[in-house]
């Protein structure tokens, strides 16, 4: 069985719809990030020219490659890639907070922002 990035996004939205405590909000943020990450991986792989993989770890490398795309891309493609990379960095920061800073609160609004960021990433990756 396989799973699409859209299915992952829908799962994070369903988690968000039932979130009634902080733990579930944290799960929603985490799932929204991973849906976004996989969507961005797919988008990045579709680019005709790839940027350099800079950074430690595959997540940081993807974010950096999107933020600093190949000079061979058109100006519009470079701007789109950079914008997607910036949104993915925001989503990653939210996911790190949700998964690792349990001593700091994460409000329902934080989860809603993470879901909106994920939806923005999906729209940007799909735009033609």
Structure description:
The longest helix is centred in the last third of the chain and has 26 residues, at 75-100. The two termini are 29 Å apart. It contains 5 helices and no strands. It has a single domain, classed as Four Helix Bundle (Hemerythrin (Met), subunit A) (Up-down Bundle). The protein has helices at residues 5-18, 22-46, 58-67, 75-100, 108-126. Helix content is 73%, strand content 0%. The radius of gyration is 15 Å and the shape is globular. By secondary structure, it is mostly helical.
Distance linking N and C termini: 29 Å
CATH topology: Four Helix Bundle (Hemerythrin (Met), subunit A)
Round the Cα radius of gyration to an integer and report it.
Answer: 15 Å
Weakly predicted, low-confidence segments: none
Overall CATH class: Mainly Alpha
Q: Residue-averaged pLDDT, rounded?
A: 95
Succession of helices and strands: HHHHH
> Helix share of residues?
over 70%
Main sheet: strands, sense, barrel: none
| Name of the CATH architecture | Up-down Bundle
* Total beta strand runs: 0
How many distinct folded domains? Answer: 1
Count of individual helical segments? 5
Strand proportion, as a percent range, falls in under 5%
What would the principal axes of the Cα set say about the shape? globular
Secondary-structure class: mainly alpha
């Amino acid at each position: 069985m396989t799973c699409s990035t859209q299915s992952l996004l829908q799962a994070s939205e369903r988690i968000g719809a039932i979130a009634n405590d902080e733990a579930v909000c944290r799960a929603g943020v985490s799932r929204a990030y991973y849906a976004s990450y996989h969507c961005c991986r797919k988008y990045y792989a579709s680019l005709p020219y790839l940027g350099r993989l800079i950074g430690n770890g595959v997540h940081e490398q993807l974010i950096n490659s999107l933020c600093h795309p190949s000079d061979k891309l058109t100006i519009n493609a470079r701007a789109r890639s950079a914008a997607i990379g910036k949104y993915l960095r925001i989503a990653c920061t939210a996911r790190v907070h949700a998964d690792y800073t349990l001593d700091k609160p994460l409000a329902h609004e934080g989860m809603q922002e993470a879901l909106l960021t994920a939806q923005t990433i999906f729209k940007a990756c799909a735009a033609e």
